[in-house]
Amino acid sequence: MPDRTVFFVSDGTGITAETFGNSILAQFDFQPRHVRLPFVDTPDKAHQAVRQINHVGEVEGKRPIVFTTLVDMAVLDIIRAGCKGMLMDMFGMFVQPLEHELGIKSLHRVGRFSDASKSKAYNDRIEAINFSLAHDDGQSNRDLQGADVILVGVSRSGKTPTSLYLAMQYGLKAANYPLIPEDFERRQLPPALAPHRNKIFGLTIAPERLAEIRAERRPNSRYAALDNCRMEVAEAEAMMRRAGIRWLSTTTKSIEEIATTILQELRPERLSY
What we know:
By secondary structure, the chain is of the alpha/beta class. Helix content is about 45%, strand content about 15%. It is built from ten helices and eight strands. The strands form two sheets. The protein has a four-stranded parallel beta sheet, sandwiched between helices. It has a four-stranded parallel beta sheet with strand order 6-5-7-8, sandwiched between helices. Helix 6 links the parallel strand 5 and strand 6 (about 175-180). Helix 5 (about 120-135) runs antiparallel to helix 6 and helix 6 (about 160-170) crosses helix 10. About 30% of the residues are buried. The model has no long low-confidence stretch (mean pLDDT about 90).
């Protein structure tokens, strides 16, 4: 059981604080309890956050670790003055030194989603999510020319989560298609994908892992049988080799690693935030 708590305190969603904090915590072999405190944007909420953090510290007997991305100095001052945890003020650590170095003041915006309705990047991301949902699992062949990326692979190889991550994180219109027995019999990619080969990226997976994943969904089925998984994976990999499609195994990779590899191969310019 975790015996230490980490708080992520933000006057926005807290996603930035949590992402950055988790990147640092990943360097240490321990599993703390995570608590996100979003929208701490008034003095009252700041005092409430301080009371919660301090109470946890008293109960656990160890001071909590507190990552903050607060831009309102009045709110931050309350946290600084009252918090008995180990405070990691990320904006103070990075934004203020950059202000000195660049000779300009930061915008002091609350999070990446502030004033989202006026952001083209935000609206593009929403459009990409809608596209990816409409083109999930081969649901639609329409407007594939508008896709940035088309993922192919056997069922349960990681296509859907990767597509949605590419849409949500990078605003990419990502379609995905499952390779099915009919494709293996033809020994060719689905016909609808032929005109868009330069956008296709393949995902594969170790048959043993695939069988485990499928068994959770449909136990004791032919779909989840190890010999069937071995056949499908072998056929899919052979098909991708014949078609000259770039592909990778998702067996031991995170969604973030898969997406980054795809971007490096197909859309390297989108690695820029």
